[in-house]
Structure formats: structure tokens, C-alpha cells
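Task: sequence design from structure.
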């Protein structure tokens, strides 16, 4: 530890032996510590309190911190750093607080950016997607991060690849409330490069403020630099309030759809951003270049499947585990199962009905009773698509909606392969909803499953009238362009004069 560190070799709260200083930042110092008597390694953060004068109400501040820490300790998402313990402590005669967290071995996103430079768009989308999953749980619990930035995100390697952990939920809120309650000069607590306009104006914040900061992080991952930055913190804050978002450069190779996601995240009016983390997750899914489910960590297992280590099922009383006996039992059971399957297949083969051959023409009409799609048929929307397309959805425009039956019933054409139609809007970045569910933003590719011929699609964008269009699979151009009409009385939010009501605490 650094010479003169008052915590060198100390035991905090009677159970955390300080081992070494591992990081230092604007909100505190992080130590690697050993939890006694368990011997578990933990990360212990000592918060740095800003100098706020003698009017400090220690009791009220401690209550506020403990309440916020207790809320954050209940967050349990795999992409959130777990909080084990918290409390107050005197360091060199100055009262402050500590938080005990899981020790994550990896690098911060800021360190990775400095050493590796910009990320590829799929990698950036995957990282931001995992951060959004962490925010989704926190926002549902009423916790707003308020200081989301690359140095508060850990990137680590696991057996399943690269993974993310988000740090410091709730810490900025306590410090900001402390500043608001004890200063009268409009002092600002936070990180200027990642601060939403409403935070700068000291207006109420919610989860959309975190989404704005996440938009800055995504921009930085794609380009290597934040869109608004100056050597003067006050100038940076004014840029968030007044400056338009710059364009991406061709060398960044950002897909148009992902650029639309970033620009919506960085709308200066919170109402124009994504309404919540779920909507952002739906918009990011097509750009991650990942097949299959989001993560095995998203699967909720029944309690009985997680009460024992994997592979250690419950045995009847008196049963002795024996490798030989188990192998023999499995072998006998396998032979019996194979025999039963073969017997069932034989019975089916002897009793099956003749099946008419399919026509050579894949577009031919099926003969016989009824259409290929019953009323309200068709595949439901799969929000987890990984290739930038979505099925058109159930119900809307399903081919042959009538229920045919018997010979001579009305039949529907069978499409030879899924058809894709490109949907664009002016302006771009409108939320696409199918069957009332947000599935992405324009520009967007609507994919029709076999048998689907049309889909009702709703386009929603802040400041514009909602527009519902019918996208036809048989569209000759394979593309649909929609112009959105600005809502009456809706104008971009007025910006305050530069420097109005803003002061930076030095």
C-alpha cells in the first residue's frame, strides 16, 4: 500500500483485513481485502466525501446511504457486481462510508478502450446489451445509476467468453443528494462527459438518464472517443445541452440501424429516447451477431433443479453411489429404451395412412381440406433474432385465415422460402412495433415466415404522429418507405441560454 495510507494493514469493521490498494477514483479508493474468518477475497471501497461545509447532518446522511446501499445489495443480476456488506467508518478522524463487493478480476471498459481502441460494432453491441440487462433489473427496483461510464464497467473473460459487470449503483445518488441538500450554488456531482441534459439542469432523473449515458458509452466504444468532450468541464456540459450530435465517420463502419439506436439514446429530450431498458434490448438484439438465447444466465430454473450441484441427483435412502452399478443400470435402461422405440416405429409403419407426394412446384396450391394457416395462425414474433430480421408476427395478415375443412375447401398458397421486406422511415430511428411489441427501430427488415403474406406494423417516434402501415410480403420492390408527420405543437425542446443556472464545483 502507499506509504502513509491510514488503512494499511487495518481490519475494517472487525472482519475485513486490508491487503492492497487496487484502484483510486473520484468517488473513492478500492482495496483488495480478506473477509475474516472465511478467507474470502473481496473488494472494499472507501467513499471519498466531497467537502460540503459544516452544515452536514451526519445522521440523515448515514440513513440515506444505508437505505440506498440496502436497495443495491438486493440487486442480483449476473451483469451487476454483488454487494455483500456496507457501513460507516472513520478514516484518519474523518467519517465516511464503505461498501464490500465481489472481487472481479478483469479490466475496466476504460482501460480496454485505451489499450485496444474502438470495438467492432457487434462487440460494442454485445457489451452494451449486457450493461442494459444490468440496468433493467436496477430500474425495476427503482435504482438509477446516475454515473454510468466506462470506468464503472468491468470487462472479464469467462468460460462462455467476454462478460460485463456494472459497478457503483446508487453511490452517485447519495453524493448528489448530499450536495443538493448542502449547497446553494448549483454544485454538480457526476462525470460531465456522460451526463444527461436533465441531470445538468438538476431536473428529476429516471432510467432514461442512464440510457443517455449508455448512449455515450456506445458511441465511445464505436469511435474511441466521446461525442461531447472539452478540457473545460463546464464546456462539456453545455455541449450536452446545446450541440447537435456529430456524424459517424465512414472509417467507423457503423451500420445504419445501429447508428439509429445510438442517436435515439442521445436525444436531448428524455421523452424521445427509448422508454425503458426492455425497448433498448429489443433494438440491440439484431446487431450482436450472436445466435441462440441471450445467455444461459437468463434462464430461470425451477428451484428443485438448483438445490444440489450439477449431476448430483437425489437418491432414495439407503442407496449407495457406485460407478459400476450406475453404468450397468444406465446400459440396461438404454437397451430397453431402444427396443421400445423400434417397436413403436414398426407399429406406426404398418398402420400409417398413405401420404400423397408433394407437388414438384414449391409454389403450388395444396389440394385437400382447408388452408395451410388456420384463423389467427402464423408464427409469433421472435424478439431474439440475431440477424437483424424479425418474423412478421401472428394474426396480422395470416394467409388463409378462414378455417377450411373437408374436400374442396379454400386453400392458401405456400411460399417457397421466407421473404424479407426492408422498412425505412423519414426520419429514421422510429420504433417498430408488431402485435404491440417493440421489435427494433428503422431501418428494419421484416421477415415473413412460410405462409405469412402481410403484417400490420406500427411506427412510433417522439414528436411525430404514430403511423400504422401494412407491409406486404409480395411487395415487388422488397422495400417500404414511410414518411412520418410531425405531431401538432411538437417541437424540439427549447435549450436554456449557455451557462444558465450552472456552476461546477471545483
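Answer:
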Amino acid at each position: 500500500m502507499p506509504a502513509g495510507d491510514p488503512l494499511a494493514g487495518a481490519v475494517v469493521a472487525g472482519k475485513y483485513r486490508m491487503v492492497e490498494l487496487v484502484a483510486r477514483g473520484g468517488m473513492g479508493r478500492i482495496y483488495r481485502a480478506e473477509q475474516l474468518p472465511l478467507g474470502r477475497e473481496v473488494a472494499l471501497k472507501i467513499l471519498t466525501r466531497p467537502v460540503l461545509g459544516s452544515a452536514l447532518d451526519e445522521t440523515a446522511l448515514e440513513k440515506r446511504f444505508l437505505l440506498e446501499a440496502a436497495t443495491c445489495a438486493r440487486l442480483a443480476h449476473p451483469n451487476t457486481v454483488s454487494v455483500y456488506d456496507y457501513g460507516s467508518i472513520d478514516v484518519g478522524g474523518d467519517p465516511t462510508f464503505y461498501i464490500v463487493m465481489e472481487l472481479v478480476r478483469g479490466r475496466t471498459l476504460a482501460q480496454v478502450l485505451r489499450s485496444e481502441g474502438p470495438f467492432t460494432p457487434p462487440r460494442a453491441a454485445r457489451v452494451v446489451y449486457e450493461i442494459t440487462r444490468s440496468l433493467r433489473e436496477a430500474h425495476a427496483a427503482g435504482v438509477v445509476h446516475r454515473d454510468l461510464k466506462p470506468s464503472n464497467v468491468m470487462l472479464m473473460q469467462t468460460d462462455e467468453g467476454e462478460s460485463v459487470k456494472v459497478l457503483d449503483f446508487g453511490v452517485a445518488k447519495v453524493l448528489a443528494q448530499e450536495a443538493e441538500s448542502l449547497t446553494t450554488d448549483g454544485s454538480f456531482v457526476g462525470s460531465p462527459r456522460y451526463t444527461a441534459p436533465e441531470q445538468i439542469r438538476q431536473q428529476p432523473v429516471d432510467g432514461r438518464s442512464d440510457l443517455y449515458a449508455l448512449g455515450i458509452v456506445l458511441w465511445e466504444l464505436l469511435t474511441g472517443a466521446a461525442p461531447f468532450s472539452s478540457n473545460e468541464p463546464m464546456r462539456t456540459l453545455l455541449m450536452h445541452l446545446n450541440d447537435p450530435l456529430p456524424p459517424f465517420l465512414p472509417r467507423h463502419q457503423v451500420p445504419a440501424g445501429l447508428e439509429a439506436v445510438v442517436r435515439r439514446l442521445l436525444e436531448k429530450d428524455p421523452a424521445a429516447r427509448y422508454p425503458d431498458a426492455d425497448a433498448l434490448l429489443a433494438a440491440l438484439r439484431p446487431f450482436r451477431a450472436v445466435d441462440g438465447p441471450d445467455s444461459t444466465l437468463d434462464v430461470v430454473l425451477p428451484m428443485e433443479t438448483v438445490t444440489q450441484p450439477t449431476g448430483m441427483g437425489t437418491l432414495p435412502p439407503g442407496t449407495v453411489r457406485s460407478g459400476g452399478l450406475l453404468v450397468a443400470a444406465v446400459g440396461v435402461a438404454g437397451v430397453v429404451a431402444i427396443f421400445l422405440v423400434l417397436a413403436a416405429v414398426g407399429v406406426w409403419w404398418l398402420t400409417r395412412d398413405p401420404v400423397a407426394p408433394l407437388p414438384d412446384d414449391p409454389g403450388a396450391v395444396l389440394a385437400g381440406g382447408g388452408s395451410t394457416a388456420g384463423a389467427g395462425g402464423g408464427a409469433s414474433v421472435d424478439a431474439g433474432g440475431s440477424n437483424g430480421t424479425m418474423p412478421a408476427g401472428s394474426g396480422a395478415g395470416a394467409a388463409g385465415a378462414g378455417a377450411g375443412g373437408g374436400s374442396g375447401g379454400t386453400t392458401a398458397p405456400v411460399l417457397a422460402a421466407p421473404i424479407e421486406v426492408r422498412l425505412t422511415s423519414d426520419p429514421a430511428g422510429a420504433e417498430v412495433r408488431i402485435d404491440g411489441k417493440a421489435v427494433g427501430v428503422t431501418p428494419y427488415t421484416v421477415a415473413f415466415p412460410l405462409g405469412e403474406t402481410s403484417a400490420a406494423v406500427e411506427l412510433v417516434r417522439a414528436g411525430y404522429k404514430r403511423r400504422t402501415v401494412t407491409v406486404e410480403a409480395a411487395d415487388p420492390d422488397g422495400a417500404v418507405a414511410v414518411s412520418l408527420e410531425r405531431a401538432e405543437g411538437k417541437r424540439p425542446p427549447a435549450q436554456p441560454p449557455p451557462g444558465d443556472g450552472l456552476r461546477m464545483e471545483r
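The chain has two domains: 11-290, 389-402+411-483.
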